[in-house]
Amino acid sequence: MIDLHLHLDGSLSIDDFKFLAERNGVDLGEDFPNNVRVPEGCKSLEEYLERFDLPLSVMQDEISIAYVTKSLVNRLYDMGYIYAEIRFAPQLHTRKGLTQEDAVLAAISGLNNALRDKQNFDANLILCCMRQADYKTNRQTALLAKKYQDRKVVCLDLAGPEAFHTGDFYQSIFDEAKDNGVNIIIHAGEACGSDEVIRAIDLLHAKRIGHGVHLDLSRENVRKVVENRIAFEFCPTSNLQTTSLPDYEHVPLKDFDKYGILVTINSDNMTVSNTDVLKEYRHLYKTFKFTKYEVRHFIANSIEAAFISQEDKIRLLKELDKRIDSYYQKIIEE
Ligand SMILES: [Zn+2]
Description:
The structure is a single chain. Helix content is 46%, strand content 13%. With 334 residues, it is of the alpha/beta class. The chain has one domain: TIM Barrel, CATH 3.20.20.140. It has an eight-stranded parallel beta sheet. Zinc ion is lined by residues 5, 7, 159, 187, 210, 268.
């Protein structure tokens, strides 16, 4: 499996929480672990985002950030993944005196530490700017994406409550990032509509869109995303939880795919959303009854959309072909 849209702070294991709460003197509360998963009847993206308060409270020093990064990579590897891009917002880890750069270096060290003994698996990092943050803070994040470009940071993202500001508010930061040769992803078309997706592509230079399920598939929009090979990172369960979509039947997977749009399937947050990529395929299988070739097609889309070299893409495709039978068996066996 491959996950291109995976938030570090939304994917701490229950054991990570217990270990770090003890180490850092944080009270997990009587409701734990229910308070780190999205509640039944969650009504909005804003309510969903409240679930990140507790994980962030245990990730405010270098050792803890490195620890959770390493732990996540180890779990993905044990689950049979072949590649992942893990994202986090360094600016959310500065409450106890770390700089954003300290946080980035800690995540890189945790990642490299975990990758050291692994074959046929790789992972990279994506740095997130936040919609509610000020210009200076977000620009710092963007400059770090440039600085650590050759050290496992492959992209800059914009995350957070989508209704907060429209795309043009951030334009100069993303203009500069693009000029610096930084890859860009924008969370758009999740809580808001099609216009935000188009702004993300036109104004903010997005090569990939986080979610984007509300893109209006007009002839003009389809032409734009197909010609520019814009990839869409669908995270179905998360979209249901934030009420962005009503149910799995409404995930516009086949609609996007039939136009040749590069659509990928991801988890968003393994703990907050209580999911992983295999579970996402299982949920979708109930509706779409994928064949093995369709599953291979969507995972191959993830390989094409990954921010890795052409050589690495060929290597991953070979690895996918070795594993597709077992992936498919796991998807249909439930
Ligand atoms: Zn996300």
